[in-house]
Design a protein that fits this description.
Helix content is 88%, strand content 0%. The chain is mostly helical.
């Protein structure tokens, strides 16, 4: 179980690091776009991301990864 958590955190950090390293200006544009959304819209995006992440982790565990 703990190895899965470390794997997930490592993958998140890799993706986040790539985004900041390869497209820092895109990150600035994304943050500006997020500021224009209402709090409710940001909350729904967060919940959707959470649900999608849980589904992906469940699928990976089911497939035996």
């Amino acid at each position: 179980m703990i190895e899965t958590i470390f794997l997930a955190l490592g993958l998140v950090l890799i993706v986040e690091g790539l985004v900041y390293a390869l497209a820092p200006s895109l990150v600035e544009q994304l943050l500006a776009a997020l500021r224009n959304l209402s709090e409710e819209q940001r909350r729904l995006m967060g919940l959707f991301s959470l649900a999608l992440g849980l589904i992906l982790v469940w699928c990976a565990k089911t497939l035996g990864v």
